[in-house]
Structures are given as C-alpha cells and as structure tokens.
Please model this.
Amino acid sequence: MVKKIEHIGIAVKRLAEAIPVYEKLLQTKCYKTEEVTSENVCTAFFQIGDTKIELLESTTEDGVIAKFIEKKGEGLHHIAFEVDNINEQIHHASPDFHVLQEKPKAGADNKQICFLHPKDTHGVLVEFCQEQ
Ligand code: ZN
Model:
C-alpha cells in the first residue's frame, strides 16, 4: 500500500550552495546530510510537515545525478512514495512498470528503496521506500 509522498528528490550541482538556498526558502534547517556510497550521491534533508525534500549531489563525475544534470540541468529528480511493504509493492508493480532493481536496496535516511523506470510513469522517476 502506498501511504504518502515521503520525499521529493532534487538534483543539485553543489549541496554547499543549494542547502542555504533551501534553508532560506523553507525557513527550516537542513537536519541531516548523508552520503550514499552505493548511489554515488551525497544527500541533504529538510522536513516539511509530514514530507521531506531531499537534495542530491553527485559524488562522482559519472554518477546518475551527474548524468541527469548534464542532460536536463538541475531540478526535480524523483518523487518517493512511502510503502508499507516494498517487496509487495515491487510484485504489484511488475510487469506493468519496469522496476530498476530486482530487490530493494539500502537508500539514504535508513530506508529500503527501489525505482521505477520513468518511461512507464509518464516521465516521472518514482521511488518506493520503506522504513527499515
Ligand atoms: Zn529519494
């Protein structure tokens, strides 16, 4: 079951520049930064009510976020939906939606995550996440 929008991911070139901008915009402090080595990203989180904003900076020149920015520029990268059972969700999604991971993997913020290919979702990269 999809419970809510857990966070919205935004690709940025440099967290050091983006964090103060979003702190001013949202009038709240970034409460956590975390590197996710498996994804080659460094993330920064803002809590907005029941939802979060996740800024993503690539830690390598050829990481997914670096490639995304090269192609599309900075901006909206993905929407993450919290689910109560990610394995059930993957099972439910296939075969209509192409799940990019066979098995959920460890993501930022203590989550199990997987992504759906944007070609099946009208251009939106969708993440499912489940609290560990
Ligand atoms: Zn995310």
